[in-house]
Amino acid sequence: MNTNEIIIPCRLSYANIWEPKQVNGTGDPKYSCCLLIKKSDTNALAAIRKAIEAIKTDPASLAKWGGKLPPKLKEPLRDGDEEKDDENYAGCWFINANANADRHPRIIDRACNEVLDQDEVYSGCYAKVKVGFFSYSASGNRGIGAGLEVIQKIRDGERLSGGNNLDGFEVLTDEDDDFLN
């Protein structure tokens, strides 16, 4: 692995990993995924922070940022308790990782076999995700981004897609056909 790459144990959220899509209908289509990292996972957090610090001191990054660390540097590791009003983010840090449309992330199973079934890896499942951290300076924004590289599904979890389960429905009879009248 490159020195800027790490593997993060996490839960997937907003897993747009099968087809590149635009964000809010604008910009270039990308693959993307939000990685939910438990605050209690001190080993993963230490590795992430070490990788971020390495990018901050990298001469190529500093050159991209005009020779010095920007005062309002955007960092990829964010606090789910402070930034999201979502119970799934509670007690977690999160990272939004992306890949350009021409760099589809590899998606593998526990045995490192390619996963082809799109229902197998989804928002809510648990995975180990390889990301590559990089510096950027674009449109007046300077920061550190996370490139989405490889997703290895570890185990199933409750889907976070919201609303496609059958909770609240019951078998209907012909007598129930008049519910719209």
Give an overview of the whole structure:
The chain has 181 residues and is mainly beta. The chain has one domain: OB fold (Dihydrolipoamide Acetyltransferase, E2P) (Beta Barrel), CATH 2.40.50.140. It is built from three helices and seven strands; from the N terminus they run ββααβαββββ. Strands 1-2-4-7-6 form a five-stranded mixed beta barrel. A hairpin with a 2-residue loop joins strand 6 and strand 7. It is elongated, with a radius of gyration of 20 Å. The model has no long low-confidence stretch (mean pLDDT 91).
In short:
This protein has 181 residues and is mainly beta. The chain contains three helices and seven strands; from the N terminus they run E-E-H-H-E-H-E-E-E-E.
Task: Name a few traits of the molecule.
elongated; five-stranded mixed β-barrel; 181 residues; OB fold (Dihydrolipoamide Acetyltransferase, E2P)
Shape: elongated
Named CATH topology: OB fold (Dihydrolipoamide Acetyltransferase, E2P)
Work out the strand percent.
Answer: 35-45%
Total DSSP E strands = 7
CATH superfamily: Nucleic acid-binding proteins
Unreliable runs: none
Q: What's the rounded overall pLDDT mean?
A: 91
**Widest beta sheet: strand line-up:** 1-2-4-7-6
